[in-house]
Structures are given as structure tokens and as C-alpha cells.
């Protein structure tokens, strides 16, 4: 049974009406006096009941924080500590920056560790090692790490990081050569809860499928789906998919490989390979109509349909091996308020277990209002 399948529970009854009824009934039984609506004593007891309801709500909340399904924040961190599973911290983005001299020098030019560069907006990257541009050389390429953890450091295209914050002798120009990537936010409660729930899998190291899945997800908090299968005896292939259906970078694949191929985790005879899912492109082309009786809400429905299509595209690429399913697209568009929808593309397609369907072109046409 998975966590969402567990029955919902309440440790104490916090229903306001039932609490009020119990207090009024108890008072009338003790005092022998009937309390009518508007009676000052009745109103006073209602105020007492309100305080009791609030306290019961706090009791329920605090008790539920001891259960994995309900725990959040620091309470969830403490539950994770019981099974030696720590919440993944925020990761920093990295990029490669080229430092270029104004002219070749007769001797080496030092570039200290920690020299800052920026693209503006108070976002700084810094060198992570000492380096020298050798005599006669014009430039050197150095790895730099974002000083602000999180996804905020991702996505800076080559050339956007072009300002040297800490001036150095003879350095005339700097520019990043690669898009900054690898920054991650602190692991969310939902993903952390799932890892805690599956953490017993690691006690069998990484032999079982669940073991490899658990360890693969420890490599990055942005990993949303993991496929583990064996294409041949003794071979283990791991495919990872990132949050939002994005394909992993090579740095992420290397990180997963480093974790799952550790000799303390990998069974001796396993040969581990870590790959991105196979990308299967498709197009979305549909036309929809709105019931004429809903004409006053037509603009709202159109916006809802556009959002439904975006959600479908995200849903379709959020799991490895998920079949390309136009029926799901129809359902979402109809639920958004469309009266009728005709799907030109995509057609149903069974995905290989290692593939993920990714939309390339999206064309959504509003056909207008129509009567029954």
C-alpha cells in the first residue's frame, strides 16, 4: 500500500457543531436549566467551544506530524533522520568561464581562487581553484560555481556572464562558454517523503530495482522519475528524467553514475550504465468548439483550454515509458469547458520503456460557438 492509499485519520474530533452540542448538553444536564438561542450563557459556552475546537485542531496537527503521510518541514526532517535519509540541500549552478588577457605576457598570470564574475542582477559566480595563464598564452578556461544556491543560477547562456567583479592585472575580458546548469532548490516535502518511504530499499544495496531507484534519486533533488531495467544478464541500465519532464544534463548523469556505481552500493557483478530517456517528438494539433449557451464565459473557457493543453504536454513528458495518449488530451480539454474537440495530432502510440514523448509544435484552434 502506498502512502496516498492510507486512510485519512483524525486523532481527536474537531467538528465545531459536535463540540458545541456536547458542551451545551453537558451544561444543561448539570444545571438542570434549558439554554435557549440568545441566552448569554449559551453564547459564552459557544466562545469556550471555539477555543476547544482550536486546541483540538492543534492536537490533530501536532499528532499527525509524527506520521510520514502528514509530516512537513522540520518535522519531516526528523522522521527522515530515523532512517538515515537526509533532505537534499540546494545545489549550486556551475559553468565554464574563459579568462582572456589583453596580450600574452612574458610570465605566468595568476587567477586566484574565489575571483567573482557576474551577468548582473546581483548573481555572482566564482572560480573554485587557483590557476595560471602560462607565459605566452592568451586565455584559460576555468570552472566557476554560483555563489547563490538554487535554480536561480541556471540558464545563463554562453556570453551572458561577461563582467569581472574582482579586477585582476592583465585580464581584459571574461565570458562563460557553457550554459550555467546544475543548480537545484532544497528538496520538496513531497519528494523527500517519497524517498523516506522507499529508504528501506537501500538496505539491500542496489541489487533490486527499488534499490537502484532510491540511490539514483539521491544524486539530485530535481530527478522526478527513474527507470531501472536489465537489457542483458549482469547489465543494469538506469534512465533518469528531471522535474518538468526535462532531460538530464551530462553532469546529472555523471552524478547518478557516481552514486549507483559506488562499490559499497553496486553488486559486484553489475555493470551500470546511466542514460537519458530516448526522446520521441510529437505535435499537438486540435480544434475545439464551445457551447453557444456558454458564450458569456467563452474567453474564460478558451484560457482554460490553453492551460489544459499545456498541462497535458507536461503530463505526457513527466514519466518515462508513458504511452502517447490523445484520449487524455481530449478529457482535459473537455473538462476545461469545451463542448467538442477534434484531435488531429497526436495519435495513440505505445512508447518503448526507455522513451519519453516530448511535444515539439502545438497548434490549438478555436472553432467558435455551436448549438446542440
TrEMBL record:
Coiled-coil positions: none
Entries under InterPro entries matching the protein: Barrel_Baseplate_J-like, Baseplate_assembly_J_pred, Baseplate_J-like_C, Baseplate_J_M, Phage_Baseplate_Hub
Domain Baseplate protein J-like barrel: residue ranges: 96-183
Domain Baseplate J-like central: 205-276
Domain annotation Baseplate J-like C-terminal: ranges: 286-366
Domain of life: Bacteria
PANTHER family: FELS-2 PROPHAGE PROTEIN
Name of the protein this chain belongs to: Baseplate J/gp47 family protein
Native source organism of the sequence: Paenibacillus roseus
Amino acid at each position: 500500500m502506498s502512502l496516498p492509499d492510507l486512510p485519512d485519520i483524525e486523532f481527536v474530533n474537531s467538528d465545531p457543531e459536535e463540540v458545541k452540542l456536547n458542551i451545551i448538553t453537558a451544561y444543561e444536564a448539570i444545571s438542570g436549566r434549558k439554554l435557549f438561542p440568545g441566552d448569554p450563557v449559551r453564547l459564552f459556552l459557544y466562545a469556550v467551544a471555539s477555543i476547544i475546537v482550536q486546541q483540538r485542531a492543534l492536537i490533530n496537527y501536532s499528532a499527525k506530524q509524527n506520521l510520514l503521510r502528514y509530516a512537513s518541514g522540520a518535522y519531516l526532517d526528523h522522521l527522515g533522520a530515523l532512517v538515515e535519509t537526509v533532505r537534499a540541500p540546494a545545489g549550486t549552478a556551475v559553468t565554464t568561464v574563459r579568462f582572456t588577457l589583453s596580450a600574452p605576457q612574458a610570465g605566468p598570470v595568476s587567477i586566484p581562487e574565489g575571483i567573482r564574475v557576474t551577468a548582473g542582477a546581483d548573481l555572482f559566480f566564482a572560480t573554485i581553484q587557483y590557476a595560471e595563464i602560462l607565459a605566452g598564452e592568451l586565455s584559460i578556461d576555468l570552472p566557476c560555481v554560483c555563489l547563490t544556491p538554487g535554480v536561480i543560477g541556471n540558464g545563463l547562456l554562453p556570453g551572458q556572464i561577461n563582467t569581472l567583479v574582482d579586477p585582476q592585472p592583465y585580464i581584459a575580458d571574461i565570458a562563460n562558454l557553457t550554459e550555467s546548469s546544475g543548480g537545484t532548490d532544497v528538496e520538496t516535502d513531497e519528494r523527500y517523503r517519497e524517498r523516506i518511504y522507499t529508504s528501506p530499499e537501500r538496505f539491500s544495496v542496489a541489487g533490486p530495482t527499488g534499490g537502484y531507484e532510491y540511490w539514483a534519486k539521491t544524486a539530485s533533488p530535481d530527478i522526478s522519475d527513474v527507470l531501472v531495467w536489465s537489457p542483458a544478464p549482469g547489465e543494469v541500465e538506469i534512465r533518469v528524467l528531471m522535474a518538468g519532464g526535462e532531460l538530464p544534463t551530462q553532469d546529472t548523469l555523471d552524478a547518478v553514475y557516481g552514486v549507483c556505481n559506488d562499490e559499497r552500493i553496486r553488486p559486484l557483478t553489475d555493470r551500470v550504465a546511466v542514460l537519458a530517456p530516448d526522446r520521441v517528438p510529437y505535435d499537438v494539433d486540435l480544434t475545439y468548439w464551445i457551447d453557444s449557451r456558454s458564450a458569456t464565459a467563452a474567453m474564460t473557457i478558451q484560457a482554460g483550454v490553453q492551460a489544459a493543453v499545456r498541462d497535458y504536454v507536461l503530463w505526457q513528458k513527466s514519466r518515462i515509458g508513458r504511452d502517447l495518449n490523445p484520449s487524455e488530451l481530449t478529457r482535459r480539454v473537455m473538462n476545461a469547458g469545451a463542448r467538442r474537440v477534434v484531435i488531429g495530432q497526436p495519435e495513440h502510440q505505445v512508447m518503448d520503456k526507455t522513451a519519453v514523448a516530448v511535444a515539439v509544435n502545438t497548434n490549438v484552434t478555436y472553432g467558435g460557438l455551436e448549438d446542440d
